[in-house]
Amino acid sequence: MAYKLGIIGAGKIGEAIVQGVLAKGLASRKEIILSVRSEKHRAELESRMGIRTVQDNRILVAESENILIAVKPKMIEGILAETADLFGPGRLIVSTAAGVPLEFIESRLPPGTPVIRSMPNMAVAIGQGMTALSPGKAVKTQALEWVASIFRACGRAIILEEEHMDAVTGLSGSGPAYVYIIIESLADGGVKLGLPRDIATELAAQTVLGAASNVLITGEHPAKLKDQVTTPAGVTIDGLLELEAGGLRVTLIKAVVKAAERSRQLMHKGK
Ligand SMILES: NC(=O)c1ccc[n+]([C@@H]2O[C@H](COP(=O)([O-])OP(=O)(O)OC[C@H]3O[C@@H](n4cnc5c(N)ncnc54)[C@H](OP(=O)(O)O)[C@@H]3O)[C@@H](O)[C@H]2O)c1
Fold this sequence. Notes:
The structure is a single chain. The protein has helices at 12-23, 39-49, 57-63, 73-83, 102-106, 141-152, 165-173, 175-192, 197-218, 222-228, 236-246, 248-269; strands at residues 3-8, 32-35, 52-54, 64-69, 92-95, 115-119, 129-135, 155-159. With 271 residues, the protein is α/β, with parallel strands linked by helices. It folds into 2 domains: 3-163, NAD(P)-binding Rossmann-like Domain (Rossmann fold, 3-Layer(aba) Sandwich), CATH 3.40.50.720; 173-269, Orthogonal Bundle (ProC C-terminal domain-like fold), CATH 1.10.3730. α7 (165-173) packs across α12 (248-269) and α8 (175-192) packs across α9. The chain binds NADP nicotinamide-adenine-dinucleotide phosphate (NAP). Residues 8-14, 35-38, 41, 57, 70-73, 75, 79, 96-98, 119-122, 173 line the site of NADP nicotinamide-adenine-dinucleotide phosphate. NADP nicotinamide-adenine-dinucleotide phosphate binds next to α1 and α4.
C-alpha cells in the first residue's frame, strides 16, 4: 500500500495528530494521505502541509495501511458505508469520534477488521494531549502499540476498557474547556484586584500548569498537595472556604457527569 497513515477528516484533531506524527518522525509526509469534504479545504491543506489530500475517501482507504477517522460523529456511518468493502483484517481503523462505540464501527465493516476507539483532546495540537484508547477484538498488540505511539507523540496516551470511554469524553475530552473557564475566572479575580489582564492571565495559566505538573510528576494525591500549600490560619484556607461555599467541587463533578451522559446519547440523537 502506498501510505502508512490515511486520515479521513483532517480537521482540528486530524491535523493536530499529523503534526505530532511528523514531529516525532513516525511517518514522513510522503507516507501520509489526508481527506476532507470541501475542495477549498483540500487545496489549502495540500499546499500548506505538503501532504497529498483528497476528497475521495475510497482512494484514501484503498491506498492506506492504517486509517484514522476524525470526522464528526454523525458523519461516521455514511463514510463507513462508502468504504466498507475496502476494509478487512489487513487494514486498521482508529476512530476519534465522541460517543461512537466500537461495535457500531465493527458491525459495519468486514469481519476481522481491527478497530480502535480513541478519545483525544485538543491539547494534542501542542503536544500536550491526553488520549484514551480502547482496542476492538481483532486488534493485535503491535498495532495497538503503534497507535499508542502516535498519540504519545501528541502528549500522553493510556489504554482503557471501552466501558470507560464516555467518562473519558466528559473528563479529558471536554476538560480543556472547563480549565479555560477556571483560568479566566482566576484572572478575573486578579483584574478585580487591579492586575493588568495579560499579567493576571499569565499568573493564572502558569499556576494551573504548575499544579497539574506537580500532580503528574509527584504522583501524590491532589488533596495532599493542597494541604502542603494551606498554612494553618494562613491566606489560602480563606480562599478555599470561598471555593467550597461556591460549590466549585460539586459543579466540576456534575460537569464531567453531564458531558459523559451527552457522549453516551450522541449516536441516538444523530449529532
Ligand atoms: N475537537 C475536540 O476537542 C475533540 C476532542 C476529542 C474528540 N474529538 C472528535 O474528533 C472528531 C473530529 O473533531 P474536530 O473538532 O477535529 O472536527 P472538525 O475540525 O470539524 O474536522 C472534521 C473534518 O472532517 C472533514 N469531513 C467532513 N465530512 C467528510 C467526509 N465525508 N469525508 C472526508 N472528510 C470529511 C471536514 O472537512 P471540511 O473542512 O472540508 O468540511 C473537517 O475537516 C469528532 O468526531 C469529535 O467527536 C474532537
